[in-house]
Specification:
This protein is about 50% helix and about 0% strand. It has 6 helices and no strands. α5 crosses α6. The radius of gyration is 18 Å and the shape is elongated.
Length: about 100
C-alpha cells in the first residue's frame, strides 16, 4: 500500500536563531572578529538627510561579504540565499524577508 506524507506544520513555534545557528559556525566567528562599526561613519556623507530610510549600511556590507564568501554572482541569488539560510539571517540580524 502506498503511503502519503501529510504536511502538518505547527503554528507559532517559538524558536530563536541563536539556538539554531551553531556556536562554531563561520558567520559567528566572523561576527566576533570583524568589527564593522566604522561603516556607518565612513558612508555617512553619501546619504541624504531627507527621504525614505535606506537599508542599514552595515547590513548591506555584510550581505556583500556573504556574496563573496558564498561565491554568489547576483543580488537576486543573494536575496534567495539569505532568505533560505538561517545562518545568514542571524549574521545580518534579520528575522524575516519579503518576497524575493
Amino acid at each position: 500500500m502506498m503511503g502519503k506524507k501529510e504536511r502538518n506544520f505547527a503554528q507559532f513555534i517559538q524558536v530563536s536563531l541563536e539556538e539554531l545557528v551553531p556556536a562554531d559556525h563561520f558567520y559567528r566567528h566572523l561576527e566576533r572578529t570583524l568589527d564593522l562599526s566604522f561603516v556607518r561613519e565612513f558612508v555617512q556623507e553619501t546619504y541624504a538627510g531627507k527621504g525614505r530610510p535606506s537599508i542599514d549600511p552595515v547590513v548591506f556590507f555584510k550581505l556583500q561579504l556573504v556574496m563573496f564568501f558564498e561565491d554568489i554572482r547576483s543580488e537576486r541569488l543573494l536575496m534567495r540565499h539569505a532568505a533560505d539560510r538561517l545562518s545568514v539571517r542571524w549574521y545580518i540580524g534579520v528575522r524575516r524577508f519579503g518576497a524575493c
